[in-house]
Amino acid sequence: MKKMFFVCSILSLFSLAASAQEYNNAIGIRLGPNSANISPGFTIKHFLNASNAVEGIVGVSNGIGLCALYEWHHPIESAEHLNWFVGAGGYAAFRYSTSFIGAAGIVGLDYKFEQIPLNVSVDWKPELNLITNVGFEASGVGVSARFTF
User: Fold this and answer.
1) How many helices (H) and strands (E) does the chain have?
2) What is residue 20's predicted lDDT score, i.e. its pLDDT?
3) Closest CA to 69 of 85, 51, 87
């Protein structure tokens, strides 16, 4: 009986961990202000495990920018299919014949629709520019819509 209880407990833990993540990969668009170095463009997200993901953003307005982020996702128990996340990473952007390199943080909400392969998120992604015009840019609020698979 103790062995059966132990096995059921382990299986329950695995099912709870799996429910924190509702998709493995997602690709779509990210809309936001044009003032941050990583401007509106395309986004791709890949989960490494139930709560850790990597996200890439390619900004395509007024030049091109690349951003890579490592994110920690946490379920919101009172709202099914909704997670909050936080993360950090870096970026390189090439705008108006000027290069920018810096660090980025991110915090936001991530929702996966249950019946369709769609994920939406809203986030705040502040940037700290380190090369060319050192400064802090706090206007990086964005909304993403992604196809999940």
Assistant:
1) 1, 10
2) 52
3) 87
The upper half-sphere exposure of residue 3, i.e. CA atoms within 13 Å in the direction of its Cβ, equals: 0
Among 14-18, 34-38, 119-123, 131-135, name the one with the lowest average pLDDT: 14-18
Contact 16, 28 (CB under 8 A): no
pLDDT digits (tens, 9 = 90+) for 20-77: 568 999 999 999 988 778 889 999 999 999 999 999 999 998 789 999 999 999 999 9
Long-range contacts of 102-108 (CB under 8 A, 24+ apart): 102/37, 102/127, 102/128, 102/129, 102/130, 102/131, 103/127, 103/128, 103/130, 104/38, 104/67, 104/69, 104/128, 104/140, 106/55, 106/69, 106/71, 108/84
Which residues are CB-contacts of 82 (< 8 A; sequence separation ≥ 6)?
Answer: 75, 76, 109, 110, 111
Strand segments (E) across 76-117: 82-95, 98-112
Instruction: Give the three-class secondary structure for 13.
Output: helix
Tokens of 80: 């099914």
H or E element, residue 46: strand 41-47
